[in-house]
Amino acid sequence: MGFLKKLLGLETKPGEPESIGDDRFEEEVLRSELPCVVEIYNLWCSSCQVMAGLLNEVGPDYVGKVKFFKVNAERSPSIPQRFQVSGVPTILFVEKGEVVDRLTGLVPLDELRDWIERHAGMGADQA
Question: Does the pLDDT at position 110 exceed 50?
């Protein structure tokens, strides 16, 4: 199966957002030692697809510093409800089990990077 995922480009590379649902959210995100960036998205949302591409691009720059996840709002509706997400894409910055900030809608790459670095306590030279 790993060969097929790699062949079809479905394999997650280090730093890219990992799909996560209700079954692992508590353990992987809320109990994480590292801060987490979580995209709440829907498959039909074109802005979500663009945001996913931006997160795929920036994620590898933060390996070992920030973990990246994505949650399909239709498959795991309890997560968006829990965090009062009313629109997609919504990006949550979670640290020590708490949402410390969120972005809703499409944001430029530089603004996304600055937002992550500000919340992760990094200067531009540390990313």
Answer: yes
Could you report the per-residue pLDDT of 4-44, keeping only the tens digit for each? 555 555 566 788 999 999 999 999 999 999 999 999 999 99
The tally of domains found in the chain comes to: 1
**Any domain includes 114:** yes
Neighbours of 112 (CB within 10 A): 19
Q: What is the domain-level CATH number for residue 55?
A: 3.40.30.10
Q: pTM to 2 decimals?
A: 0.87
Confirm whether 45 is a catalytic residue: yes
- From the list 45, 99, 106, 127, the catalytic residue is 45
> Catalytic residue at 48?
yes
Cα 80 from Cα 59, distance rounded (Å):
22
Query: 């790459």: which residue's tokens?
Result: 109
**Residue 44 included in any domain:** yes
Contact (CB, 8 A) for 116 and 91:
no
User: Would residue 36 count as lying in a domain?
Assistant: yes
Catalytic residue selected from 20, 37, 38, 48: 48
